[in-house]
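From the shared-data thread, chain only:
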Amino acid sequence: MEKTITVFTPTFNRAFCLGDLYESLLHQTNKDFLWLIIDDGSSDATDELVQRWKDENQIEIHYFYKENGGMHTAHNLAYEHLHTELSVCIDSDDMMTHDAIEKILSFWEQNKSDQCGGIYALDEDKKGNIIGEKFPDDLKSFQGWGCKYIFYGENNEKKVKITGDKKFISVTKILKKYPPIPVFEGEKYYSLYYKQYFIERDYTILILNEPVCIVEYLADGSSLNMTSQYLKNPRGFQHLRLLMMNMAPSFEIRFTQAIHYINSCLILGHYNFWRGAAKKGLITLAIPFGFCLYLLTMYQNYQNKKHKR
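Structure, as tokens:
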């Protein structure tokens, strides 16, 4: 019998912590899920560990190995192998709450519609504290924009800042409608939010204001190394900032993205900031601020290298 939801996990040399996620999946109150593991080139015997779990036959596990290319390339491979109605990414260093699958599937059965593209739920830490803040009580759904800020209400007259990471559960057939996350040769990072920009633009997103994921931020995690990511992956960030400038609903967000776009151009040594850009006036306005961000990025990188010596 086909499962309703896929939990997919990109992993790279995380055999030391992947077992915690496995245990949390074993203890789910609803077993209507499969676990899809995408191994992004691990060399720590992750494959042997997963094979042992598959032999235990406690939950359905699908495992795929690929050459290391970065988290976004692991996501792209996962998208190719998603076939269930819903799908959710749980990182290799995170866990699911014991009733996460039950909460998600119950909520979906009560609220699903053809116009729904996904569900936002909450993350919590190991002590049970919500990461950031809960969504406002009057926010039940939205459509249009959900990155950092959500605009909602009858005419999108309400705006709320999103604090802390949230968990996105995708309607798989809609997720697969959009192109894969862009990949640039020599770069191993691109925002995993990429497909969500399009889903949120075109479909209604439901709000499940309860935690389903227990998060752990490891010292080598990508979320803690953004200055390094800016410098190692400038083409990806340049592409992303142009996309966000074109899609963002407010001047404030568009201007912030223009500043970051200038920073990426300077890192690349591209001084014709207007080439390929639609919002040339906005870019011109952002140039001095982009230079300041570039100097700050270089200074932070210098300090990071200094502390590693």
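Residues 226-308 form one domain.
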